[in-house]
Backbone:
């Protein structure tokens, strides 16, 4: 979590309801995303934000719905090859 909008640098929740972008990282889930045919970005180290079809194929649709309802704001997932790749991209909070 950086506290600012990635594209504009606007502060979190200023003038809008911000979303939570959650990076899921690890060889197993990254491999599952590749096998499911999800395109890769960032030089092949991550997916883009997962769409509803992607969430369904990976069994994450229910989790996203639950988190969105609990947080009362949109929640999105991306999948990274490793925690190191995730942390190298931008300031983040690691939750084991």
Residues:
């Amino acid at each position: 979590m950086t506290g600012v909008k990635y594209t504009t640098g606007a502060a979190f929740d200023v003038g809008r309801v911000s979303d939570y972008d959650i990076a899921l990282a690890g060889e197993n889930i990254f491999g599952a995303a590749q096998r499911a045919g999800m395109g890769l970005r960032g030089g092949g180290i991550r997916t883009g934000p997962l769409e509803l079809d992607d969430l369904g194929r990976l069994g994450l649709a229910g989790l996203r719905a639950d988190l969105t309802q609990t947080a009362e704001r949109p929640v999105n997932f991306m999948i990274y090859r490793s925690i190191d790749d995730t942390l190298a991209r931008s300031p983040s909070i690691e939750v084991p």
